Known about the structure:
The protein is mostly beta strands. Helices cover 5% and strands 39% of the residues.
Amino acid sequence: xxxxxxxxxxxxxxxxxxxxxxxxxxxxxxxxxxxxxxxxxxxxxxxxxxxxxxxxxxxxxxxxxxxxxxxxxxxxxxxxxxxxxxxxxxxxxx
Length: 94
């Protein structure tokens, strides 16, 4: 689960458009009965990290103990328009 910023400019003097991608991991899709030829999921509805960000436990789900890659990835993109011109936005004030 993370937040990624991707700044974009509409035009050289136009407004600055900033998009944010929010990544969430939803229900677990691990097939626990694959070894016997069946299909069974554990019912875990959303990924919750077992540890702090940056550790190996951050990739393990606290609810079902599966790796984050077994959970369905959902990406939401949100765009925000800054009312200032791109020149004002890129030049720091003193």
